[in-house]
Every structure is written in C-alpha cells, then in structure tokens.
Amino acid sequence: MRPPRPEMSNAVPPPALKTAPPPPLVRYVGALWLIGAAVGAAALVFAYLDRDTHLAGLRDTAAGLDAAADAARLDQVAAIALWGTLALYAVVLVVEALLVRPLLRGAGAARWALLLMLALNTGAVVLVFVFLGDGSADFQPTVHLAGVQLAVAALAVLLGLLPPASRWFRDARPGR
User: Fold this and answer.
1) Tell me: the pLDDT tens digits for 50-61?
2) Phi and psi for 133 in degrees, rounded to 5?
3) 8 A C-beta contact, residue 30 and residue 155
4) Which H or E run contains 155?
5) Minimum mean pLDDT among 5-14, 22-31, 33-42, 60-69: which range?
6) pLDDT for position 171
7) N or C: which end of the chain has fewer CB within 10 A?
8) In angstroms, how far apart are the furthest CA atoms of the chain?
9) Do 93 and 33 contact (CB within 8 A), yes or no?
C-alpha cells in the first residue's frame, strides 16, 4: 500500500496571469475582417439571386470557346464555373471569419494565416471578376462587393502589421 501524499507546503494558489485586452487598433483589425466577411456574404447572396444571368453569360462564354459543344455540356461547364467560384469564395470568407477570434486573443500566427488568406482571397476575387463580371461599367453587385471585400481585407492586413499591433502580439504571447 502506498503512503498518502504529503500536503502542499504553501496553501496559497498560484497567481493567475492577467491577459491584456487587445488595443483598439487590433480590435479595429478584427472588426474590419468581420465587416469584410459580411460584405463578401452579401456578394454571395447577390450572386445567388442573380445566378440565372450569370449562368447565361457563362454559357455564352463556353459556347464561344467550343462551338461544337452540345447544350447539356455548356450548361455543365457554366454550372461548374459558377458554383465552383462561389464555393471557393465562400470557403475563403468562412476561414477568414474563423481566424478573427484567435487574432483577438493574441495569437500572432493568426495574422500570418490571415495574410495567406488574403492571397487566396485575391485569387477568389479574381475568379469572381472573371467568371461573374460582364466587363461593363454598369453596377454589378456581386463583382463590386467582392472588390470592396478585398479592399477591406487588405486594409485589415496592413493595420494588423503596424508596430502597435505587432508590439501587442509580441507581448500577448503566453509563457512570458
């Protein structure tokens, strides 16, 4: 039989480390990422509501590339282009929105992950411009909202890399 464990020599519990709240600049960065995700979601809603117009334009583009293709094949190509573009854009927006919470908790790696996501976001927005834009100067809600979302995300990255934010991320690391 094992002997009983000895009691603690000091009954005072260890101190709880106080976590520093994020400075206003970091909170603004998080808010900008969430605003960008909301603007991107609005672009997705407009793309869904205007899907018939987008599909018709994509069908015409596919017919211009391959005049010998039958109607079913053109419909399939148009559907893959539309829904693939929207799915990629939606995934990028969701991942960006999910990275905001660790960012606000001081995880500096989230800043670099969001920088990578900005590069993916740029690619997704280029696809939105190419596949869903008609090249006219008229207002196109999907394309223009995607462009605004990309601009807001780029601003959030730039603000997140400023020295006050970098200082907070450096000091907010656990284990210091």
Assistant:
1) 999 999 999 999
2) -90, 145
3) no
4) helix 141-160
5) 5-14
6) 84
7) N
8) 87
9) no
What angle in degrees, to the nearest 10, is found between the helix axes of 51-65 and 24-49? 70
Residue in 117, 127, 129, 124 with CA at minimum distance from that of residue 153: 117
Q: Please give the C-alpha separations between residue 67 and each of 60, 78, 135, in angstroms, as whole numbers.
A: 10, 14, 22
Tokens 């005072």 found at: 12
Query: Could you count the other beta carbons within 10 Å of the beta carbon of residue 94?
Result: 13
Residues contacting 104, CB < 8 A, separation 6+: 22, 26, 27, 30
The CA distance from 34 to 26, in Å, is: 13
8 A C-beta contact, residue 150 and residue 122: yes
Residues across the chain = 176
Q: What residue type is 78 in one-letter code?
A: A
Residue 42 CA to residue 86 CA, distance in Å, equals: 12
Report the C-alpha gap between 36 and 125 in whole angstroms.
13
Kindly state the tokens that stand for 20. Answer: 């520093």
Q: How many Cβ atoms sit within 10 Å of the Cβ of residue 103?
A: 23
Task: Give CA–CA dist 52/134, Å, rounded.
Answer: 14
